[in-house]
């Protein structure tokens, strides 16, 4: 019995949906990470993505105008998105960023798409979701790649200008992640359409969680097709199929809503019972029956790397901006709270992860801009960028404390905090993405021979044994090289190369190369020992996926620091934190993987090959935490670059915080003079800062102009540290009215 035949009996079969998912998408720089040789030159050679003149004009025009129309607090306290906002989105083609210009679309780059969605998300999660869905997985994308000419010519112009609003229905109560279990079914039959008897499908479905369904005018629908009368051939089950149904079509039910965390985007259900549709409704026509899952997974890759990661970055930038500004202005015990080490630990984490998130956003969209659809990279982006956004937001909530939990227009965190679980959940729940997709798909796509081996194992061709043996020899050679590379770089630091011209980057690039070299033999040994059971060992495979993911993040941070930072001296603590945190997580994942590997001899070999004998992993120093937290409270170009997605509107919470932040920086030298004078000769009783300041002016410590500056700062400070108040019947009181209350500013100096 041949080796191939023996393996065929042991390995579990791959389902059709699994095979189509594995075949979907392209391989990009993640392949070099998996193979133990991160391609830093290819990373540095990627063309920099920038907004075109047309894209910048859209940002400066329609996007800015839209932000001025949005009152997110009022929106989330109401029931509906205002009709004028929906009309504005349609009229200005916000729903057509991916649709080609020849059909009336904007045809923007992935980088522009991400920047627009993220900028809107920093203002309103509900409006961002409304914009992102038509520009991600949905009828537009499917029509562009698979629609017939007639379908494209009819639907794409209507989707582009907002005449039609699309949704796409995949998830049902009985099938979420397991698409192969979709119970929604269609029977091939004949029926009447437009007064004629035609061949078509009689479809029944029950779908939920469908974004835009309550207001959609056209429904994309996924279902299984069966042909019991064999009208199309001799097969009974034809597979998952995608169709496009107008809302006006008889039997289509759209309208009921869900309430996702009180965030007022439209999300709901669609149902139909024995609805007859002609073959023309199938996306791509009758020939595409059974190709639906392949179509979906092929299109999902790009969208997964844009929209939800953009929300994660927007959440982080908004939280970063509000928190560092508040921490600089808010004082306790006579000093800004940003100088307390407990606060500094959280602030440094916020700042470093925000840097990492923006770097990953830029790199991922630059890759998509090359025309590739890297399914593994986009899964990494979706999972880790939404999770990092959640980490940053939770730290911001901890720092702002009472201010963060009082809802109102002045709260810059509440909207993003409520929307976070949505990004974690949709387009594949994050647990699924981490535990099944990143390494599971990554191993098959990034290994140079594994996919061929699996295909040959399950092949029925007569030449399969001979071809398999060739591939097996190559695989063994590949694994041996990986083992020697890991051993050498693990024990001999001089073998860890670096191509960077910057000394502060070289040490981290060497660590990236070393950790990547360890990943390759760990993956090889796991596949050799566990085989198909590795798919079931989710805790183990997830950790290997984590190593890939954090190395991808580290590579993104290197590229961002080298190519997009103008003042590297100011940005250095951000970069160092992002790198140290990412590499620390990768190291920890390796330690946990080896410690939990079920085969003792293999575990020992893994330790030997990777020089991993200790559970200790290098952490981030307190010195770097203090340095970065203090740097983050400075008003400089790095802070501006890492908060560029947050657009400030006059009078909103961000505006209030920013005005106080800038005002304090402007009078910092005067506050020092005031503090020194008060220590030398205290004002007793200290009724208020204003009272003390007036006394100091009388004594000539500050002149009239300086006193005016300080009074102006103090008024802005008082407004920034206050929260929204309501009457007993929950009527919102103007901030100016609440400031007439007792001044709580004794510690303003």
Automatic annotation (TrEMBL):
Keywords: FAD, Flavoprotein, Oxidoreductase. Pfam families: ACDH_C, Acyl-CoA_dh_1, Acyl-CoA_dh_M, Acyl-CoA_dh_N. One of its GO terms (molecular function) is medium-chain fatty acyl-CoA dehydrogenase activity. It comes from the Bacteria. GO terms for biological process: fatty acid beta-oxidation using acyl-CoA dehydrogenase. Pathway: Lipid metabolism; fatty acid beta-oxidation. PANTHER family: ACYL-COENZYME A DEHYDROGENASE (PTHR48083:SF33), MEDIUM-CHAIN SPECIFIC ACYL-COA DEHYDROGENASE, MITOCHONDRIAL-RELATED (PTHR48083). This is Acyl-coenzyme A dehydrogenase. It comes from Alteromonas australica. The lineage of its organism: Bacteria, Pseudomonadati, Pseudomonadota, Gammaproteobacteria, Alteromonadales.
């Amino acid at each position: 019995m041949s080796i191939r035949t023996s393996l065929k009996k042991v390995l579990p079969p791959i389902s059709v949906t699994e095979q189509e998912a594995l075949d979907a998408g392209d391989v990009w720089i993640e392949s070099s990470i998996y193979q133990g040789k991160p391609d830093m030159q290819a990373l540095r050679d990627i063309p920099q993505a920038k907004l075109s003149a047309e894209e910048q004009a859209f940002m400066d025009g329609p996007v800015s105008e839209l932000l001025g129309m949005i009152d997110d607090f009022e929106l989330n306290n109401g029931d509906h998105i205002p009709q004028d906002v929906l009309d504005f989105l349609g009229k200005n083609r916000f729903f057509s960023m991916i649709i080609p210009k020849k059909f009336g679309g904007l045809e923007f780059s992935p980088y522009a798409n991400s920047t627009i969605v993220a900028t809107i998300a920093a203002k309103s999660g509900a409006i961002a979701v409304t914009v992102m869905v038509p520009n991600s997985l949905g009828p537009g994308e499917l029509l562009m790649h698979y629609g017939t000419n007639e379908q494209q010519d009819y639907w794409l112009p209507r989707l582009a200008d907002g005449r039609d609003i699309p949704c796409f229905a995949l998830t049902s109560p009985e099938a979420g992640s397991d698409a192969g279990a979709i119970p929604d079914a269609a029977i091939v039959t004949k029926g009447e359409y437009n007064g004629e008897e035609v061949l078509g499908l009689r479809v029944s479905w029950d779908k939920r969680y469908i974004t835009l369904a309550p207001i959609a005018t056209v429904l994309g629908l996924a279902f299984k097709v069966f042909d019991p009368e064999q009208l199309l051939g001799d097969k009974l089950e034809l597979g998952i199929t995608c169709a496009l149904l107008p809302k006006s079509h008889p039997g289509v039910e759209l309208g009921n809503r869900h309430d996702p965390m009180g965030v007022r985007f439209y999300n709901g259900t669609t149902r139909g019972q024995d609805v007859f549709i002609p073959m023309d409704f199938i996306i791509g026509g009758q020939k595409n029956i059974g190709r639906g899952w392949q179509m979906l997974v092929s299109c999902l890759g790009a969208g997964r790397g844009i929209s939800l990661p953009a929300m994660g970055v927007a959440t982080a930038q908004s939280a970063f901006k509000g928190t560092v500004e508040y921490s600089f202005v808010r004082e306790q015990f006579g000093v800004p709270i940003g100088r307390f080490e407990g606060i500094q630990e959280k602030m440094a984490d916020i700042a470093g992860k925000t840097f990492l998130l923006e770097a990953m956003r830029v790199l991922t969209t630059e890759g998509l801009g090359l025309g590739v659809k890297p399914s593994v990279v986009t899964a990494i982006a979706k999972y880790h960028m939404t999770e990092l956004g959640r980490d940053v937001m939770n730290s911001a909530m901890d720092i702002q404390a009472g201010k963060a939990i009082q809802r109102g227009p002045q709260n810059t965190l509440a909207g993003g905090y409520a929307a976070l679980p949505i990004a974690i959940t949709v387009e594949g729940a994050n647990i699924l993405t981490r535990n099944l997709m990143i390494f599971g798909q990554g191993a098959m796509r990034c290994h140079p021979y594994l996919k061929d081996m699996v295909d040959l194992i399950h092949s029925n061709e007569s030449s399969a044994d001979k071809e398999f043996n060739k591939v097996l020899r190559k695989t063994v050679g590949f694994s041996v090289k990986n083992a020697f590379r890991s051993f050498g770089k693990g024990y001999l630091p001089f073998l860890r190369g670096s191509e960077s011209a910057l000394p502060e980057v070289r040490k981290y690039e060497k660590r990236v190369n070393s950790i990547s070299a360890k990943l390759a033999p760990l993956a090889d040994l796991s596949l050799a020992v566990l085989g198909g059971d590795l798919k079931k060992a989710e805790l183990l495979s997830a950790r290997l996926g984590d190593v890939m993911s954090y190395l991808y993040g580290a590579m993104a941070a290197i590229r961002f620091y080298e190519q997009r930072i103008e003042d590297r001296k100011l940005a250095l603590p951000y970069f160092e934190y992002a790198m140290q945190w990412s590499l620390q997580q990768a190291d920890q994942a390796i330690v946990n993987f080896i410690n939990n590997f079920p085969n003792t001899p293999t575990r020992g070999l893994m330790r030997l090959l990777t020089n991993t004998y200790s559970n200790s992993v290098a952490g981030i120093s307190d010195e770097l935490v203090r340095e970065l937290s203090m740097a983050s409270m400075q008003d400089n170009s790095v802070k501006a670059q890492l908060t560029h997605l947050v657009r400030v509107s006059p009078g909103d919470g961000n505006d209030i915080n920013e005005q106080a932040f800038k005002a304090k920086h402007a009078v910092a030298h005067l506050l020092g003079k005031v503090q020194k004078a008060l220590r030398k000769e205290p004002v007793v009783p200290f009724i208020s800062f204003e009272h003390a300041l007036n006394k100091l002016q009388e004594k000539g410590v500050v002149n009239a102009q300086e006193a005016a500056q300080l009074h102006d700062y103090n008024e802005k400070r008082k407004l920034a540290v206050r929260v929204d108040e309501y009457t007993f019947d929950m009527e919102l009181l103007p901030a100016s009215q609440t400031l007439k209350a007792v001044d709580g500013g004794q510690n303003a100096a």
